[in-house]
Amino acid sequence: MNIPSFRPNYYSLDDIAITQERIPCRTTQDLHMMGFLDASEKSPNLSNNHTLELPLWVMLTQDDRNPHFEALVPDIYSAAYKEIYQADANYVELGALCKFYFELGMYLTRYQNNNSVAEMLYTTAQERLKGLKDLCQNVGNDSLNVASKFDFSERLLFNEGTKTNKLFDDWLQERQVHIKSTEIAINIRKRKRSPDGETQEEQQ
What we know:
Domain GINS subunit: 77-172
Domain DNA replication complex GINS protein PSF3 N-terminal: 11-58
Largest sheet: 3 strands, antiparallel
Family: Belongs to the GINS3/PSF3 family.
Strand content: 5-15%
Radius of gyration: 29 Å
Subcellular location: Nucleus
Shape: elongated
Structural class: mainly alpha
Number of strands: 5
Distance between the termini: 51 Å
Protein name: DNA replication complex GINS protein PSF3
CATH class of the largest domain: Mainly Alpha
């Protein structure tokens, strides 16, 4: 798949869009005059252990030695959803849950000590790739809603897979076509070089 990697490319628009996703977090200390970060907060300050949602890039850019916020894992990566993925991962519409399900999950693994998110991403992707391959070979399904069915990376794979499958089908069909020589090739075969180096017409 000739698609350049966008992570961790600082100038990638796709990576910027991923880090704009809002995730739940908790304050680790009292934050004065920071109440504007939470639209539902009436106080101008944020107290310790206050929960709110912030863009992912805020968590990535804060000082690890003195963090103001602690990242919390969203519900779509919780144990409850893990059971749903294990039951039938292909049935879940990841695009409707989160546009950047796998990419956001990879970022969140740094905030997990038990690797539960990483294992969930691996098993879910492994199971869904089987169904993705079958869908690429049956592109005539007009009822498929790609935007809600697949997340960002899956849509890239689906588009590339359907394109490759179509090229392969075209190649198979061309093998059955009777290939005729061009007029240039026919004329070249009609001409031969004489011993003295001059060309002459081939005897008919």
